[in-house]
Amino acid sequence: MATYKIVLFYGFTPLAAPESVRLWQQALGERWGLTGRVIVSKHGINATLGGTVENLKQYVRTTRQHPGFEDIDVKWSDGTGADFPRLSVKVRPELVSFGVPDEVEVDEHGVVGGGVHLSPDEVDALVAERDDVVFFDGRNAFEAAIGRFRGAVVPDVRTTRDFVDQIDSGRFDHLKDRPVVTYCTGGVRCEVLSAIMRKRGFEEVYQVDGGIVRYAEARGADGLWEGSLYVFDERRHVEFADDVVPLGSCVVCSAPAARYENCADASCKTLRLACAECTPVVMSQRCEVCVAERPESFVPRPTARAAASAPA
């Protein structure tokens, strides 16, 4: 029986021909039957892919042969074989869409001017030594709703593009003279975010090396991370210990919840938290946003067709 895995990695390095790298990555993904997303830009590569462990090993081994990709940190997690609907390989102006592609500078060592990388041990040591350390969440607010570092500052952002406006607004100026530890899922967003913050006068900026994934793998339930980790595939969330209590609340009954679901409308883009007992209810009804946008008719999701007539 095949064993399925998911790999998550990025590499910041100057690429003179992103389109050529895209075609190469598309061919590799198709050759080994992988699904997921690969983004290529002049700044490097960012990928999350699923497939059999054998095929992913072949893919990773070949990808590391490209100049600048030799030392990419590949994070492995369990998959199901149906974690992504298809393979998508695209060239974009940025590896992460902060909306400032010309502000990001990359050399053979990575992002120029980014925050200092801290290992899990170094993160814990910094917090133990300094009482003014602040964790700064580099993800969208809905991700932080189900898990975050203890006492973290969570900016009220819906998309990554919102970060620059929030930082430029002066909302976080009171943190500029404090040690700020940025963090995100696998580390890629903080490579850029930490550089953006330093350019705007934040004096002491760090980033969790390898992101939440690497920290929580090392600490489980014994570290400074609390709750679940949102992931952008069909798993929707992962835990790093057996007894994790989700930080989110079910929209129906307010019980602890970590899984986001869309409503019965096939066009729904609104994620709502639901506990296991209330998930069928959430998925069988239309959310308020969809009712407002399409009050007369809608196309039900295949999994919700039987309950498509349920009240909104």
Characterization of this structure:
There is one protein chain. The chain has three domains: about 5-90, Alpha-Beta Plaits; about 105-225, Rhodanese-like domain (Oxidized Rhodanese, domain 1, 3-Layer(aba) Sandwich), CATH 3.40.250; about 250-310, no CATH class. The strands form seven sheets. The protein has a five-stranded mixed β-sheet with strand order 4-1-3-2-5. Strands 8-12-11-9 form a four-stranded parallel β-sheet. With about 300 residues, it is of the alpha/beta class. The radius of gyration is 20 Å and the shape is globular. It is built from nine helices and 19 strands. The longest helix is centred in the N-terminal third of the chain and has 14 residues, at about 20-30. Residues about 305-310 have low confidence and may be disordered. The protein has helices at about 20-30, 55-65, 120-130, 140-145, 160-170, 190-200, 210-220, 280-285, 290-295, and strands at about 5-10, 35-40, 45-50, 75-80, 85-90, 105, 110, 115-120, 135, 145-150, 180-185, 205-210, 225, 230, 235-240, 250, 255, 260, 270-275.
Please sum up the structure shown:
The protein has 312 residues and is of the alpha/beta class. It is built from nine helices and 19 strands.
Overall radius of gyration: 20 Å
β-strand percent reads 15-25%
Taking the sheet with the most strands, its summary is: 5 strands, mixed
Q: Please identify which CATH superfamily of the largest domain we are dealing with.
A: Rhodanese-like domain
Assembly state of the chains shown: single chain
Shape: globular
CATH class of the largest domain: Alpha Beta
Question: What do the pLDDT scores average to?
Answer: 93
Structural class: alpha/beta
The number of distinct helices, counting runs of at least 4 residues, comes to: 9
Number of domains: 3
The CATH architecture of the largest domain would be 3-Layer(aba) Sandwich
What is the chain-wise order of helices and strands?
EHEEHEEEEEHEHEHEHEHEEEEEEEHH
